[in-house]
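Sequence, structure tokens reproduced for absentees:
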Amino acid sequence: MLLRTLSALVLAPLILGLLWWGTPGQFLLLAGFVVTGLQYEWRRLTGVFSWGRDLGWVLASWLFLGSQYLGLASWIPLELMVVLGVAYTAALFRFRPGVSCSAEIALRLSGLVYVTVPLLAAVAIRGRPDGAAWLLFLLFILWGTDTGAYLVGSRFGRNKLVPNLSPGKTREGLAGGLGIGLLAGMGGATAFSLPLGLVEGTLLCLLLAVASQVGDLIESLLKRESGVKDSGNWIPGHGGLLDRLDSLLVAAPVLYAYLLVADLREKGWVILGH
């Protein structure tokens, strides 16, 4: 517990400082290194790890992130088709009876989507003029939800949430996580002067808190199927990157979708809440 706390005390200020004072380009580099680590952990969890073949998929993630950063997101579907074309072409020369190259490519593709698309959303959010504030708002909710679920669950938890998947998670912990996540989110929205009313802000905070819990459970499923306790050992006391960013991988696209709708609403294309 002490090592976990010390790691958090070191990493949290660094992350917050980079988000608030760093540039979108610096955030892009951070996202690139993070996606590399996440891809590595995903491959190890699913059992399809190979240094040679995985390098191409990691480069694809960097290509997608760079396209998003440069405002060329419309190119990403074409780039994805090229990546798949290269993967299947390479599989033609590796095919052996009894070995399913298609299943392996499907696993690698699912990993690409699972860890890269959320970071594309995060890079897109950071590229906004108010992007740093929105990402910090999101982190407040994620950290509040995680902390609330742990504190309330460990103290008052009685009823298991998904006993076959994660025996330690309880319904009481879920409620505590949603409550603390809501308070943290509304506090962050006020601190960063985000344009959120009481009702809309409450609903958004709760939606992101739920997404955070779903992301946590998805990673629990992956680890349960793989028979491991942690996705890695990059962060002392916390495990791997996936252990720390599982909530972000679901919540970031949700926040990005909300911001897209909010932008359309400002342009008069979408009427929501009237």
User: Anything to note?
Assistant: The mean pLDDT is 87. The first strand starts at residue 160 and ends at 162.
